[in-house]
Amino acid sequence: MTPAEFKSTRESLHLTVKWLASHMRVRRQSVQRWENGRFPIPDSVEAAMHDLEVLTQTSIDKGVQDHEDILSVPMQDQGPEDDMPPAWHRMVAKQIAGQTGARIQYEEHDEQA
């Protein structure tokens, strides 16, 4: 994986440098150095990025298969228990909606905040 492929993958998954660094258990500077080519991208990181791409596609495929009329997404981070960031959930919902015609709305507890 080249630095450009790494950054393109991160951006296409709607993941921030901060989130990815936390997920990979590294400093933000490490992610930035991988993206600008200053450090080689470890094989384990490349594999983790592939896993995130697979998770994303699997989530989209499942959402299309489930074909719900309304897709609920978070407006903002709910806390450390969140596995993926809100922007990722919204991107997945947008992909599903594009294939099924579903509507996207914010989760109810977001609206009350």
TrEMBL record:
Protein species of origin: Bifidobacterium asteroides
The protein's name in its UniProt record: DUF1870 family protein
CDD domains the UniProt entry points to: HTH_XRE
Highest taxon in the source lineage: Bacteria
InterPro entries the record matches: Aca2_YdiL-like (IPR015060), Cro/C1-type_HTH (IPR001387), Lambda_DNA-bd_dom_sf (IPR010982), YdiL_sf (IPR027910)
GO molecular-function term, one example from the UniProt record: DNA binding
Signal peptide: none
